[in-house]
Amino acid sequence: MPELPEVETVKRGIATHVENKIIQQVILRERRLRWEVPETLATILPGQRVETVTRRGKYLLLKCTLGHLLIHLGMSGRLLVVNPEIPLQKHDHVDFIFENNQCLRYHDPRRFGCILWTTEPTEQHPLLANLGMEPLENRAIGEHLFNIARKKDIAVKKFIMNNQVVVGIGNIYANESLFLAGIHPLRAVSSINLAEFQQLGIVIQQILTIAIAKGGTTLKDFTNSAGQAGYFQQELKIYGRAGEPCGQCGAIVQHIKIVQRPSYFCPHCQPVE
DNA sequence: AAAAGGACCTGGTGGC
DNA sequence: TGCCACCAGGTCCTTT
To answer: Is the CB of A112 under 7 A from strand B?
Structure first.
């Protein structure tokens, strides 16, 4: 589900409610996420204060008194700030109940997400150590992509979705970025020149920034921490538009699979070569 | 070493 | 209405 803008939306939504609040109780109803949620969370977290909420790629990092909670929403995860009395829904797996009687509730039907605990510096955690560049915190993203691309032989869409190259770009924003940059998703990265990568870097930053401002993309079930949908789906220019005329030139939008993921492109605006 | 493919899950949808 | 196949916003792990 959530790509960088959605995770950022959730981060901002929960930060005001949990930062500087003390965890009172942790309820683990279903620990079988992508990796098992540590049982010890229920005993070590109560009494600890959440100091900050930050984001690295699509991971949320809750800095606590004695370590970090590391949360990923996977494909279908949600984090809601609710009153703990609110009746449970199916797949409400974990509750973090705070002293102010607010509850951070983790919900995840497909259980592809994770909730982990680390006392090491987060940048050394195996899941975070190899993550690539943050697209919104660096100006030279185009040069970065170009330099790595020269050693590789893969389709550009797969390349920009690789979190070891650049973080946060999932299937929707990969499709949208390549359309706005006029680059065919199947083009080999080694054939893309610096100017093209610089343009791609610019549109990636623009699209992620606007998507955050719109509260993310809700195709089906993404919501922010208050349970509200995002609005960026109204801005999608290419994703999900197979068979429709391209908004720029009128050619029919094509649909193919790239690495098993749905991919959309305009054959005129995004020439193969 | 790099790239491709499989795996992990549930819920919704469309076809018969 | 029921059953089934297929699809979905992610990414790690295994195989080639």
So the answer is: yes
Mind listing the pLDDT tens digit for each residue in A96-146? 999 989 999 999 999 999 999 999 999 999 999 999 999 999 889 999 999
What's the whole-number mean pLDDT along residues A45-56?
98
What is residue A22's three-state secondary structure?
A: strand
- A261: annotated active-site residue: yes
What sign for the dihedral angle of Cα A71, A76, A78, A84?
negative
Which two structure tokens, joined as six digits, stand for A222? 């993404």
Q: Verify if strand C has an atom below 7 Å from the CB of A201.
A: no
Starting from the edge strand earliest in sequence, which strands make up the sheet with A92-98, in order? Answer: A78-82, A103-107, A92-98, A21-28, A49-56, A59-64, A67-72, A114-118
Which SS3 state, helix, strand or coil, does residue A163 take? Answer: coil
Output helix, strand, coil percentages for chain A, rounded to the nearest 5: 30, 25, 45
Q: Is A31 a catalytic residue?
A: no
**How far apart (Å, rounded) are the C-alpha atoms in residues A212 and A244?**
26
How many Å apart are CA A76 and CA A128, to the nearest integer?
20
pTM: 0.97
Other CB atoms within a 10 A radius of the CB of residue A77 amount to 30
